[in-house]
Amino acid sequence: MNALLADAVPAPPAIGPPLWLLAELTYRCPLHCVFCYNPVDFARDETELSTDDWLRVLREARALGAVQCGFSGGEPMQRDDLEILVAEARRLGYYTNLLTSGIGLNEDRIGKLKQAGLDHIQLSFQDSTREVNDFLSSTRTFDLKRKAAALIKAHGYPMVMNCVIHRMNIDHIDRIIELAVELDAEYLELANTQFYSWAHINREHLLPTRGQLQAAEATTNRWREKLGARMKIFFVVPDYYETRPKKCMNGWGNVFLTITPDGTALPCHTARMLPGLAFPNVRDMGVREIWHHSEGFNRFRGTGWMKEPCRSCPERDVDLGGCRCQAYMLAQDPAAADPVCDKSPHHGLIVDIVEKAQQPRAPEVETKPLVFRNRKESKELARPF
Amino acid sequence: MAINSSSIPRIGHGFRLQWEEAQQAHVLLYPEGMVKLNGSAGEILTRCDGVSPVDAIVAALEQKFETTALEADVLSFLRIADERHWVEWS
């Protein structure tokens, strides 16, 4: 029996460095976006790591070979010590990225961040129009974002503009790209909503039709031709319209390390939803120990954990079975094949959801309100996704 | 632009070139991304200092590796690097 198991279970792969460190500094956020990827129950525990804890995490991860550092949240500008953390990250040799809504970015702060050595700022918009931007984020922030964009350019930063795309704004994509041109962005990420966390709750409102998606891609391609090298446009298709899963996070515990505001270390920013996995906290364990030896990081590394149909699939090394969270959310089993894959016995669930999205909205969807991400909803919903 | 032996390359705006001990390689870092460079790409890009023209870079490489006739290879790499915005020209 043991011999058989040893034969069937491939040797664990060599573990490379966590090249990407995502520091989710806080879940506090002035916006209330309906597609936010923060856990639905983020308000369950609002403790945050201290400045010293973060400095230690930065040093330990860098020593392991981390080289890209993203400061995210929530809204990372809500942390008063952001400049201190950026300065240390830059000193250690990270390429430092700030992922922000732009709220709180003023002349004084961007000056200090620049001085601290911040390499790059990614600014998010919710739409090209004030009305939809402000509605989707449940704030009046459109004009503030435009001001933030001007500050970013004035300080000589390359600008990555990010806009989450979904059923309610996908038809504005032409105008969204035009806005990116006006703001002189070097990179534009048109990231179709993936259905985790708050977007999962609001899925019926957010999943576009196939027609919308095709039109948006065609528009994007027209702009790509027109703009050439002036702007690089990324267009991310929603998983639900694929028949093979993505190689989620480029492999579990392969290159990504996320640290949540309270210090929990995760292989991706939504993995905390998975049941039966103990994810370590950086207050209890060093980053090296976490990355190499913790159960949470080793559980889905490589291919040894796979069941059928992944286990014998010729493409198993291409996509590594897809996303564990999607498998859990849709098939109630984190070790199942990602149901996005049409070889998955649960793929019919995706087909049904997508087919439903082609219909004009059903009356019950029209009456089911959008749920905005805020503390009150988080406490009431009190569930991981 | 036309790139020739008197052109002067430097690392592109928003990119950073550095040696990574953990990867035993030079890498180019840019917003949310990284290119791991092979040995010769690293040797060329570390010499793109915004002062040295291509012919001086070629001479330095030929001396270091005790060889000749590297110019065509260096130019063809720099043309690719230019397309990808890894380098700019002074």
Q: What are the secondary-structure elements of chain B, in order, as H or E?
A: EEEEHHHE
Strand order of the largest sheet of chain B: 2-3-4
State mean pLDDT of chain A (0 to 100 scale): 92
Amino- and carboxy-terminal Cα gap of chain A: 39 Å
Kindly describe this structure.
The complex is a heterodimer of chains A (385) and B (90). Chain A has 385 residues and is of the alpha/beta class. Chain A has helices at residues 2-8, 51-64, 82-92, 107-116, 130-137, 142-154, 173-182, 197-201, 203-206, 210-227, 287-293, 295-298, 316-319, 324-331, 347-358, 363-367, 375-381; strands spanning 20-24, 68-72, 95-100, 120-125, 159-165, 187-192, 232-236, 256-259, 265-266. In chain A, strands 7-6-5-4-3-2-1-8-9 form a nine-stranded mixed beta sheet, covered by helices on one side. In chain A, α3 packs parallel to α4 (107-116). The longest helix of chain A has 18 residues, at 210-227. Chain A is globular. The two termini of chain A are 39 Å apart. The model of chain A is unreliable at 1-9 (pLDDT under 50). Chain B is an alpha+beta fold and 90 residues long. Chain B has helices spanning 39-45, 54-64, 71-83; strands spanning 9-11, 16-20, 25-30, 33-36, 87-89. In chain B, the strands form two sheets. A three-stranded antiparallel beta sheet of chain B has the order 2-3-4, with helices on one face. In chain B, strands 1-5 form a two-stranded antiparallel ribbon. The chains are: A alpha/beta (385), B alpha+beta (90). The interface between A and B is medium-sized, with 19 and 17 residues.
